[in-house]
Structures are given as C-alpha cells and as structure tokens.
Amino acid sequence: RRRPKKLAMPDPPALPLDVGPMASDARSTSPGAQHAYVQSQSHLLKATSDNPLPTAVPPPIAAVAGLLGVRHVLCLIGLPERGKPFIAQRLSKYLSFFHGAEVKLFDVNEVMDRAGGPPGSDHNAMFMFEEIKAFMNATSSAADRNMTVPRAGSGRSAPASSSSPPSPEVRPVVVREGSAEVQLAESLATHGEEELLVHPSDRRRKNVDSGKVAILFANDTFACFKEKWSGTSKERRRWASETLAKDRALGAKLIFIEVIVDRADILEANLRARERAKNGPTASRESAGPAMYEDELPDECLREFEDRARRFQRIYVSMQEDGSEDDLSYIKLINYGDKVVTNRMHGYLRMRIAQFLSVIHPTPHVIYLSRHGQSEYNVLGKLGGNPPLSPAGQEYARRLAQWVPRHIFYQHGVLTKCRLWTSSLQRTILTATHIPHPIVPASSFDSPDGISSPPRRGSHETDAATPSGGTPSHRFRSRQRSRQLPPRYLQGDEGVLNEPVWEQMSPRVYRNLDEIFAGEYEGMTYEEIKKIAPSEATLRSMDKIGYRYPRGESYLDILARLDPLVHELESYHEPLLLVSHQAVLRLLYCYLTGRTRAQAPKLSMPLHTVIRITYDGWTPPTEERFYLGPECSQTDGQTHL
What we know:
The chain has 641 residues and is an alpha/beta fold. It has helices at 62-65, 84-99, 108-115, 122-137, 182-190, 203-206, 234-246, 264-279, 285-288, 291-294, 299-315, 348-357, 376-380, 391-407, 426-431, 487-491, 526-532, 534-542, 555-571, 582-593, and strands at residues 71-78, 102-107, 212-217, 253-260, 330-334, 339-343, 365-371, 410-411, 414-415, 419-422, 439-441, 501-503, 507-509, 576-580, 609-615, 622-627.
C-alpha cells in the first residue's frame, strides 16, 4: 500500500489554554469563550524567515464563525404558557452548537429584578439595554488580528509578532502569552492606537467575530407585562426597535418572534412540561409511568391557566398585519410549525432561525443511539474504511433485532410509530439488517381498539437489559389497552391492507451519518500514523475537534453535514433509532444532552450498547444505556478518531 510521505515541518508549539474552537455556553459572556480558529492551525500563524508577516487569523469556517459578524436581538413574545422559555433554550443551543455563535439568554423577569425600578420605568429599560450592549461589545475572539497592523508610512519594519520595546507614550497591556489580546497589545506598545490600520474602537473590528445573539424571553409573562422590552404592545415594540436602531455603533438588529398556539394538545403539553420543570425530576419514571406525560392535568391547574390567559389576552396586542408594523422584522410561529409567517426576514441568520423554529416542538423526543457492531477494522485497530462486521458484530446485529420490537416499538405498553436511520457504510447497514419492518395500519396508532399490547418477553439473554425508567409516548393522550393486532397486519400480506399504513423502522440511509473521513490515513492504525507522521499525530492529540486529517475531515466538518439532519430530527414526534459511528454519535450525543461540542472527542461511545436519550427542552435530558453484548474489545482504532 502506498503510504503518504512524511512532511518535514517544525513541531507545533505548546499552546495556551485559551486558544481553541470551543463554543461558549448559552449563558456565557466571558471574554475568550469564542475563538476564530482551531488550535491545530496556530503554528501556521507564526512569523518565520520565509514569511515574516504571516496571516494572523485564517479565513472562517462555518462551525466556528457561521454567523460571521451578525448581531441580533431576538425578542420572544406571546400569551402565557406558549413555550417561550423552551424556544429560547432550543434556539440558543442550536446556534451556538452548530454555528459557533455567541448566544446569551436574557430572562426579562430576572434582569428587571436586578434593575430594581418600578415596572415599566425608563430605569429598568435602560438597565436591560446596557446589559445587552455589554454582551454585544465584549471582546471575546481574536478574529480582528489581521487588522492589528500599522498603517502604511507609520515606520514599522518589524513583523507583527516581533517583540519591540514599548514606547514611553503607551503603557503596555499585561496579557498571557498567546491570548486574544497579545498582538493588539504589542502593536499598541510599539505604535499606539492612531498608527494602526484599524483603530481598536472602530466598528469594523466588531463585524468579524463569530456573531452574537441576545435572546429575550419572560418566565413570568404577567409580571413583566409593563416592561418596555416585553414587546406586549405596539408602543413597546416600537420603543425597542428605535432604541436599538439609534445606537449605530452597536449595530444590532431586532427580530420579534411571536408564539401563537390555539391547539389544545400543544397547550396541555406545555402545561405538563411546566409542571415537570417546577416539581423537579421524579424518583422513578418507571413508577411514574406514562401518567407523568399523558394523564389529564388537575382541574385547578387548568382553571388557573384559562383564567390567566383570558386576563392577559384582554391587554396584549399581537403583531399587527395591517401595515402599521410592516417595517419591523418578525416571525409568527403558529402552533409550532403548522404555519410560519415572516416579515422582513432577509439574510442568512434570519432564515436559519425561521427554518429551525418551523421544526421544533415541545413534545418529548426519544432518540436511541447505537454504534455499528464490531467491524473487522475494529479488530485490527484500523481507522475508517468500509469493512463488514466481525463475528461479534454480526451477533450484536441479531441481538439488536430482538431488542428493538420490545423496547422501541412499544412506549409504556402502547404501540408507537418509530423510525430508523443508518449511514451509507456497510457496517451500519449490516447492524440494522435484521431489525423487523412490520406494516401496520395507521388506525392502529390512533383508534382505541387498534393499539396492541407488548409481546411477552422471551428467554434470550438480551431481555435482561430492561429500562430503568419510562419513556414518553409520541402523543399526548390517555393510556389505552386493547387486543393484540391480527398477525396479518404485522406481516403486511398483499390484498389485506386497504387503508393508510406505516412501516415500522423503515430504513433510511444518510451519507451525512458516515464516519469521519481520515483522508490519507484511512485504513491505517494510530501507531502507524504516529510512526510516519509524528507531527500530525501531535496536532491531532492537542486539538481533536479542530484537526483535519490530510485530505480528510475534522469534527467541525461533521457538524456542517449534521446540521440539516438535526432539523429533520427535531421535527419528528416518533422515537428514532440512529445507527452510526463513534465520531458522529459523539457530536449528536453532546447536542442532545446539552453538552458543549468541545467535550465530544473525549466521550466514550461503547460498542454493542444502545443509548436512549429523552428530552423535551424544559427539563434536563435523561439517559439510559442498554448493553446487549457480546463481549468485545472496546479499545480499537476508532477510539482515536
């Protein structure tokens, strides 16, 4: 086999802890949380004898700076219990995880409590505005370093990275070596602000960062009704729009997102979610059963809600479509994607927000993640490729096929529609090849007499893998029990099904779910890579999420191809089994469980294990793991991906 040549290159320098691609937490505003490039590029940005004036910051990539330079304030408005905090949380996670944006959530109630002024006062309004400005204006990346060079004729002869003694007129800034402020500090110490190509306070410096989004919402819509940032009337919305527009230096644009819900099932789902969040997690979801998700709410709770909604509706003013607010940018989200109305929503970020809002919903999601069974390359410790399953992997495929009908087809004993995704590589397709795909009449999922009971447990050893807690049904309805479905329906005999049907676990193949491509190192072991290219191995070990294999991919490249799939995943109401690969599942696992993407490369995705994740956007996600066996080595080449 032809091996790539070992390239002569200097060993990468030890890097400071504050350089890297990690996205900020949804509520974080601390400087240094966002970065303009990945660690494994740092050694390429140093001055050398051949390149004394290097590029200070490489061009942006989507996952690090996908919303380049944009600044938006999103104001969520609408009647009580429509799920505004839920939308704020989901949207902030999506924008920061997949697009590298800096996002901060502003709970209007919490900010007004800190402001301390009377409800609706100018003091409260300006206090909130100053908090928004502080977030937007914070220097939190090194994206503007290319502009930190002297103007022509300033007399500078040394490269930007050289160390020159500070001039007596300018006091040097003390910073850690390699931090985002180093180059600016050195240039200020040598030349002063007026001699730089772009002044440190110039607005152009603010338009090259990864993008910032402030999301305003209210946990208690009644308590903040009079506040100017609540958006509950035409006058308040006009004030907020004009206030942001007057501050040209801030450069932030305002978007109103009005959440309109008139479907009883969605309203009840939001109320149940609120009660779950208020009361905290139950001791055991198994003991709580589906009643936690499906039983009727107490009459007292419903009466309180209806009374509050009627009183609020009398004084609340919806976004007007009579022309009086046509100059404002807004989205009307009606029944969570049933209908979406947009006005003056031009630009990349605005349309991405509208698209994402059209697919999310407050119904609990149930996602099952599974790596493929052990492959022949796993046994040999090789990276990538398209190998078949080993004998142990084939056994896992058979056990998975027996486990799925008992644990995924039935949620709380109720027959439930479910879906199956795999990658296009044969090891995932072979892992799912034995999973049954019964054809079931659509009426079996909706009618009281069409829901079957779960099959009886057999004696296979995988039956011992029982869930430690219940999983919510994909619909909010009362629990129902009835007779076993006739076998002919499950087998899909021709001539019998003369009504709409559903194919359980209908297999769908997505190349987006393929394993990270190792480029020139496909089919090699990690030890072979360290031997022929030690510098590449070092770069990979110091920056697993940002490092790109030669002519291959990085974790950040995977994020770009997972983005459209996550939109589809978020739109589903049915449980989904996703059979994929370690690097891909690491990222999906972090997104679904609320972790940062920087944590992904170090996570363990064990072989022959199914991970069930349940989340609804209101309460913390829950996770359960089911080990199906057989035993196999968990230390393989994929561990180093």
